[in-house]
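Case study: Methyltransferase type 12 domain-containing protein.
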Amino acid sequence: MGIIREIPVAEAAAHKVLVEELDDAIDSITGRPLTGSWVWDSALVLSRWIPTHLNFQGKSVLELGAGAGLPGLTAALLGANRVVLTDVQQLLPGLLKNVEANGFTDRVEVKQLVWGLDDSGITESSTFDIVLMSDVFFDSEDMIGLGKTLRRVCGETTQVWAATEMRPWTGECLDQLMAQGFQVVEQETSQLSVHAAVQDSDTFFAIFQIKPTLAESSKSVLNAWSNSAAISSVYSSYG
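Here is what the predicted structure looks like once written out:
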């Protein structure tokens, strides 16, 4: 059992998402609570940002590392015709409950997905218009698998958006993505409705557009490494 929250995701009164935060989802290996069982601040920030920056009407949307699924559910609320929420197996029952609570069973799917593995229901033919991620930049070693998954689910016009709390190791994760040929572009953080979304106004958040380089070349990789050095310099100040 958990706590059900009604979360406003836009100025319109009707734009609210119901999310149940679980207290009994446990990692079978460590015995610790799974951190994806509750809504993280970055998910709140992303869900308050996307209504005024992205058009979801008729779009297909994938959320990676969905946790409680707030950004993906917000996309469904804003008109996406297909949303796929993905995470590890232990979090899927909670995601299914949240889909049902919001009445989105006709267009929101829940699938198990481990980054970098090809044995999930997300095949190479399953490309999406928009990919959403929040608070996924924790371990730089996980970025190799994340990069593989992004290449598999992104087409030429796919937009990838990621919100994150800025931590000392965030730059290392972004470096790893850029070393794989991705471009990382930070959006204007002054536009984030942080004060309306989270309580700790002293925490730094950022939203990045991750641009996959579908056709790799030596030039793109060289540019990625150049940008990587610049990002590391900038984000070391958050530590």
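For the exam, be able to explain this: The chain has seven helices and nine strands.
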